[in-house]
Amino acid sequence: MKKPFILVNLKTYSESIGQSAHRIARAVEDVSNESGVQIGIAPMYMDIHPVSMHYSIPVYAQHADGVGAGTFTGHVTAESLKIAGAVGSLVNHSERRLTLAQIEGSIQALRLQSMSTVVCTNNEMTSRAAAALKPDYVAIEPPELIGSGISVSKANPEIIKNSVSAIREVNDSVKILTGAGIQSGECVRIALDLGTDGVLLASSVVKASDPAFVLRDLVSQL
Amino acid sequence: MKKPFILVNLKTYSESIGQSAHRIARAVEDVSNESGVQIGIAPMYMDIHPVSMHYSIPVYAQHADGVGAGTFTGHVTAESLKIAGAVGSLVNHSERRLTLAQIEGSIQALRLQSMSTVVCTNNEMTSRAAAALKPDYVAIEPPELIGSGISVSKANPEIIKNSVSAIREVNDSVKILTGAGIQSGECVRIALDLGTDGVLLASSVVKASDPAFVLRDLVSQL
Amino acid sequence: MKKPFILVNLKTYSESIGQSAHRIARAVEDVSNESGVQIGIAPMYMDIHPVSMHYSIPVYAQHADGVGAGTFTGHVTAESLKIAGAVGSLVNHSERRLTLAQIEGSIQALRLQSMSTVVCTNNEMTSRAAAALKPDYVAIEPPELIGSGISVSKANPEIIKNSVSAIREVNDSVKILTGAGIQSGECVRIALDLGTDGVLLASSVVKASDPAFVLRDLVSQL
Amino acid sequence: MKKPFILVNLKTYSESIGQSAHRIARAVEDVSNESGVQIGIAPMYMDIHPVSMHYSIPVYAQHADGVGAGTFTGHVTAESLKIAGAVGSLVNHSERRLTLAQIEGSIQALRLQSMSTVVCTNNEMTSRAAAALKPDYVAIEPPELIGSGISVSKANPEIIKNSVSAIREVNDSVKILTGAGIQSGECVRIALDLGTDGVLLASSVVKASDPAFVLRDLVSQL
C-alpha cells in the first residue's frame, strides 16, 4: 500500500517566521512520529537551516533557481539549499512561476544534488507537461482555489481525476500531489481516492491556533 | 511523403521592417510557388497586416499572449493577430520565454482562433514537455547555436535525434521543426533525415542580399 | 495658457481591434478637429500602421522595448514603431511593467527616433523617479482605480496633488497626465486644476456606444 | 570626515556557502575591527541567520521583495530578513532586476522594518531615478564591468562622476556606492575621490585565497 506524503508550505505568513516556523515544525514532527505518515515542511529560506537542524522531518525550499554557482545575486542555488539541510524544493509554485526552460533547469540542478522535486501546475495540460519533465512529484493546484478555503478534492474532483489520467499518459511513475483548500482528513482521503499520492497545503495548518490538532485530523483517515 | 515546412523568423532585424519585410515576403512567395514547398514568415507585429494582405503565404506572429480581450495593455491577443491576418504564432521563442502556464494559455488562445502553434524549446526534456501540451509544432533550438552561423543539424545532430525520440514518447502526431544556424539546402536535408518536419530560421534569409537565392538553396534538396 | 492632452488607450478590448480601432480613431479625429484639443490614440500594435495612415491624429504604441535591431523575437522596437507611423509610446503601463533599466532603455530608444515618451507610474514616489528620467510625460495611475469607474480626480485628488509636487521637486518641465476612472469633462477639468497637463483613459471611450459623444463631454470644460 | 562603507556581496559563488560564508565573515570582522572601517556582507539567504548570529558585522540580504506577509511562496519579505538578523538589503542588483514599482515597494517594506536600502543602478539616468526614491544608498555598477576584473573607478571614472552629479541634482543626502571590478585600495581611494561614500564588491574578496589580505588592501588608503 502506498505511503501518502503531506507537504506543508509555510509561504510568507507572519505566523510562520523564525520561532513560529519551529512551532509548526515541532507539530509536524510529533504528528509524523505518532502516525507514521510522512509530513514535510517548506519554510522561508532563512528558516531552512535552523528547522532542518532541530527536527527530523523533510525540509523543502519554496523555490529553487536552476542556476549553478557564480554570479546570480539574489538567487537560490540547489547546492546552497542542500548545504542548509533541505532535501527538496517546490518548483514553479503558482506564486513563483517559472519559464519552461527554468523549470527544467531547476529540476536538473536539484537532481544533481540528489534532491526531491515538486513541480506545481495549474490544470490538466500543464500537469501533463510537467510530468513529461520527469520530476519526483507533480502538484496540481487550481489557482482559483488556492487559499480559498474551498477544497479542490470536493469542489473540483474532476480536475484532479483528469489531471491524474493526463499525467499517466506520459509518465507511469511520477508521484502526484494536489492542493488548494485542503483542510481535513476527509479532503486528504478523497484526494488519495482520486489517484494522488498526497497533498500540498498551507493556510489550514499555518494559521491554526493548534497546528498539531489540524495535522492529526489530516492524517486521521489514512 | 511528408511536406516539409520552412518558417522564416524576421526577428527585429533592421533588414526586416516595413518595406524590407515586403522584400522578404515576395521572395518567400516566389520560391514557395516555384518549389511547392510551404514557406511561412514571422514578421514584427506591425508588419503582419500589410504582409498578409499582399502575399499568399502563411504569416505567423513572433509571440502571442494567452490573454483574452480586455485590460492587457501592450499585450498581443490571438484574436487581434487573427484579424490582422496571421494564421499562427511562435510561442516561447528563446528570445521571449514564457512560464509553463503562459505557454499553455497561449496555445489555448490561439487554438480558439483556429491558429497554428509553434512552441520553441531548448533541449530534449523541454521538447518532451512542450509536446505534452499538444501544439501543432515543437521547434527545437539549442540557444547556444541560435544566430551562431553553426548549423544545429551538423553541429549537434544528437540533440535533434534525441529530442525527436523524446517527443515521440509522449506525442505521436505533433510536427517537429528544428532551428539554429540553418543556412543551406544540406542543413534542411539533414534536419529532415533526422526525423523533423522542417526548419525555423532567421538571419541566413533576412540578412541575405538576395533572400530568394538563399531560399532556393534551402529547398534545393527536397 | 497650456494645451491639455488626452490620450485614449485602446488596451486589448474586443471593441478596439481592426475596424473598431478605426471607429474610435475617427471619433478622436472629429472631436479633436471640432475642439482644437489634442487627442491621441494608443491602439494594439497591428492597428498602428492602418490607423496612422488613415487619420491625422497622434498614434502611440502601448509599449516599446528598449532594444535595438537584431535578435529580439517578439519584441517591439522604437524604429519599427516609427516606420509604422507611431509618434510615441506608453512605457511601463501598469499592465506591462518594466524594470528601471528597461524603462530608461525604452526612453532612450524612443528618443533616438524623436518619439514622445509617456511613462506610467502608480504613486508619488515612483512618479518622482520616473520624472528623474526626463521623459516627455509622466502618467500617474493608481492601479487600484484603473478600470474601476471611480475617477482618480474625484476619489483620490491628494495622490495627484502630491505626485505633482513630488515630480516638480526633481523636474520642472516634464508634462504630467493622470488616469484611472476618468469619464467626464468634470474629471478632466479637476485633473487640470490639480496641476496636470491632461489625462490618460481607456474604457469610458472604448466601450462607449458613441465614442465621439464621450469625447465631446471630456473636452467640454476646457 | 565621512566614513566609507564597503559592502561584500557573496553572490552564489561556491566559495561563499555555509562554512565558507563564515570564513569570509570572520575576515570582514577582523579587518573591520583593525581598521575601524565599516564593512558589511551580503550572503545567500540561508546564511543570513548563522552569519548574523556569529559575527558583529552588518549583514545584508542580496534581494528583498516588496511584499508583506501572506501568500508569496518563494519570496523574501523584509520582516523575515529582519528576524533572521539582516540590517538591510540590496535592491535591484543587476543580476536580480525589479520593476520600478517593485523597487519602490521593496524600499518601503525594508524601511518599515528600519532596514537599510542599497538600490543598484547601471548608469547616470537610472542612478538619478533611484536617488529620487530616497533610499539610503544608490550603488552604481556599469553591468559591462561587473565581474570583469576591470575597475570602474579606473576604466570609467566619468560614469561615476556624472552619476554623482546627476544624483545630487535630485537628492542631497543619499549615500553613493560604486562597484564593478573594485579590487584594491587604490580603486577604493579613487572611488571616494570621485565623490562616492564607498564600494560594493564581490569576486575579488570571495574568490581570494586569503580574504583578509584583500580586505586589508582595500582599506589601506582610507
Summarize the structure.
The structure is a homotetramer of 222-residue chains. Chain A is of the alpha/beta class.
What is the CATH class designation of chain A?
Alpha Beta
What do the pLDDT scores of chain A average to? 94
- SSE run of chain A: EHEHEHEHEHEHHEHEHH
Q: Care to count the β-strands of chain A?
A: 8
CATH topology of chain A: TIM Barrel
- What count of helical segments of chain A does DSSP give? 10
Give the percentage of residues in beta strands of chain A: 15-25%
Instruction: Give me the Rg of chain A, rounded.
Output: 16 Å
The CATH homologous superfamily of chain A? Aldolase class I
Largest interface: A-D, 42 and 41 residues
Relative helix content of chain A: 40-55%
- CATH architecture name of chain A: Alpha-Beta Barrel
**Terminal residue distance of chain A:** 11 Å
Give the overall shape of chain A: globular
Oligomer: homotetramer
- Main sheet characteristics of chain A: 8 strands, parallel
Can you tell me the residue ranges of chain A where pLDDT is under 50 for at least 5 consecutive residues? none
Strand line-up across the major sheet of chain A: 2-1-8-7-6-5-4-3
The number of domains of chain A: 1
**Alpha-beta classification of chain A:** alpha/beta
